[in-house]
Write a structure and sequence with these properties.
Order of helices and strands: EHHEHHEHEHEHHEEEEHEEEEEEH
Strand content: 25-35%
Number of helices: 10
Largest sheet: 6 strands, antiparallel
Number of strands: 15
Oligomer: single chain
Strand order of the largest sheet: 11-10-9-8-13-14
Low-confidence stretches: 21-26, 203-208
Radius of gyration: 21 Å
Number of domains: 2
Structural class: alpha/beta
Length: 339
């Protein structure tokens, strides 16, 4: 008897809080309001509807992004909409924990791929929660180094086509995700996708990172001349692409070298560089014992006591990133969109 094929499923996590933090008050970042996120999700669903997808799971939220995306269908698009969409039954708290919990539930349901709407912070909590499910990200946050700027219709098509690929083909269209692991007293405490910043403060306070005079050390997984945020500091010094091994470690402090870096939208600061160097993949750096705060992907997350031993390791996350352009190119090569 022929075995039943695995269902083709896509997950969507749209963070209603992304792109709406304190950086909107003190910088000039673009505002991705939830009405626009509804439009993005609707376009993803309409693209998926044109493919033979079995199920789409959407994270619930207080704004009702998923519900609004469905309710906004009208005319011919509503008449022809046959996609099985489920707004997941889960409690919501209006915090990053919602995205984390949704990712875990989607993985339990053996979802093929998860599309994330958010910035670096949203993607961090999603990737941290996953063990195997690959992600595809669209930028709707403040500092958007990890997620990409792309038309959501094309992302929806790519996500749907990805579910048809063999395991070998999936490896070809995905890439590993470099990550920074924070190790406290020998135990992995947390991780970052883009940057980990050591701040000379004793309490977390506002989650956004602003006062550059309090920066001490900076670790980044990539260093480019065009990205914004803390990687902009490293980008003035050297280039390390997201798709190559290694990262950069910088010590901030008075010296002869000072760089101008765009640490947030509309915010350019002069940063004194004490010393810096490239770091190898899987390298671990031990930091001196002292009281400090660690900011991960732009938000203060950890408070470290002076009695605790702190190490930082550059490694890989357990899940992979789906390159939507590669998916579409392979689909065309396989003539999957010919009718």
């Amino acid at each position: 008897m022929q075995s039943e094929r695995k269902k083709r499923t896509v997950g969507i996590i749209a963070n209603p809080a992304s792109g709406r933090d304190i950086r909107r008050l003190v910088a000039h970042g673009s505002v991705f309001d939830n009405a626009e996120k509804v439009n993005i999700v609707r376009r993803i669903l309409l693209a998926l509807n044109k493919l033979d997808i079995d199920k789409v799971y959407i994270m619930p939220d207080s704004f009702g992004i998923g519900h609004e995306a469905l309710n906004g269908l009208w005319g011919e698009e509503k008449e022809n909409f046959k996609l099985d969409v489920e707004i997941m039954d889960m409690s919501i708290r209006g915090s990053a924990e919602d995205s984390s919990n949704a990712a875990e539930l989607m993985e339990e349901k053996d979802t093929d791929i998860i599309i994330v709407l958010g910035g670096d912070g949203t993607n961090r909590v999603v990737v941290k929660a996953l063990k195997k499910t690959p992600v595809m990200s669209i930028s709707t946050g403040t500092n958007n180094v990890f997620p990409i700027m792309a038309e959501s219709t094309m992302l929806g098509m790519a996500a749907g086509l990805y579910t048809f690929f063999t395991e070998e083909e999936r490896q070809k269209v995905t890439s590993p995700i470099k990550s920074i692991y924070i190790i406290r007293d020998g135990n992995v405490e947390d991780m970052a996708l883009i940057d980990a910043v050591i701040v000379n403060e004793s309490y977390i306070g506002s989650r956004a990172l602003w006062h550059t005079e309090q920066l001490e050390e900076l670790f980044v997984t990539r260093s480019t001349s065009h990205d914004i945020g803390m990687v902009s500091i490293a980008g003035r010094l050297t280039q390390v692409r997201a798709d190559e091994e290694g990262g950069v470690f910088i010590e901030i402090g008075n010296n002869s070298l000072t760089v101008k870096a765009a640490i947030a939208p509309g915010v350019v600061k002069e940063i004194p560089i004490k010393r810096w160097r490239k770091i190898e993949q899987e390298e671990t750096i031990k930091l001196p014992s002292k009281q400090r705060i660690i900011a991960l992907d732009g938000e203060r997350e950890l408070s470290v006591k002076k009695t605790e031993q702190l190490e930082v390791k550059l490694s890989y996350a357990p899940v992979r990133f789906v390159e939507y352009k590669d998916v579409l190119a392979l689909a065309d090569e396989k003539k999957m969109l010919e009718v």
